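Protocol step 4 of 6: record predicted structures for both targets in the notebook before any analysis. Target 1:
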Amino acid sequence: MKDHIRKRIQQPLEIHFDQPDKPYGCFSNFSSHPIELEGELWTTLEHYLQAKKLLGTTQEKEIMHKALQAKVEQYPVIREILLSTGDATLIDCTSNDSDVLGRLWMKVRESLDGYQPHFYLPPWIVFPEEHPYSLCWRMGFGEDYLMHYWPWLEEMSVDGRKEYDAYFLPVPEEWQFEELDEEDE
């Protein structure tokens, strides 16, 4: 996100994840994405991590990073979703360990080809007091925000957009617009 825009936004750019069946749940260690590591197939990332703990491995962060990297390499959809989070802070809500998992996901994200440090919240979150037909969107900061938000959103991968939409839904009623047919324009 452009610095002049980030400075004016009051809301934190955060994505919270915890349950595998919720938006951004693919970042959970319990998501149903089997991974192949060290010649074995593990049902979930958590299975792999627990097996390593049983073996008395002490380099937990390095092992987690290796497993996350494998998950991204083996699942292009997770790679696309991770890249779509831009520079948002990823927060594991199940964590009581200083959010090691969220920080490791961000480290993996920053190492990927194609990483762009941009993430935009929906305009109704950034400007909750503004009506969608307000002059705010046609001049000044509101217009500037939309000029960055819409192209960013349109460039997002299909899978990234699906997670984003699920996370930020429902859209407030006043922001729900009917699609115009080409004949209506």
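Target 2:
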Amino acid sequence: MLAVLRSQKKINPQSQEKIMPRAIKHLLIGGLIIMTMGVSTATTANETDLKLTIVNPKNLYDPSPNGYSTAVIVPPGARVAYISGQGGQDGTGALSPDFAVQVKQAYANLRTALDALGARPDQVAKLTVFVVDHDMSKLGVLTKNVKEMFGEALPAQTLIPVPKLAIDPMLFEVEAVVILE
């Protein structure tokens, strides 16, 4: 804009500072108006609008027997909550040395966190689980607990083997991404 005005001899270098800020203000205001025109001010959703869509493509291995789904689609307009890693500590902070007991307690703790959000297990879109010294013998315990909590509405899930967690006797941790109604 300034180059055009200068080439037409309609602007001198001294007035450049006055026009430039005004031009930027007009561009910014115009851009904000254009950007907000497409944003709905009132959105409503009913329970069916906020249902997760579980995707297990036929040409991929079916992970549902192992307690998870390949992908989960979160509906438009959903609010998202993130639940920090829940370990196997009971209400007093005590940890059992037994892996299966810690996993069961961690999922009970996750359920308590969901309840505090007013959410249900079928609103969990994604789990990330951390397992100390993971081996195949632990999969049965993990799958059993996931299926007990989530039934057929299995969230997407990633299992990450780790050498250690935040507290030495901790053997398992689960975090969740949840959609809220």
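Step 5 preliminary note on target 2. The longest strand covers residues 79-87. Residues 63 and 69 are 6 Å apart (CA to CA).
Proceed to step 6 after PI sign-off.
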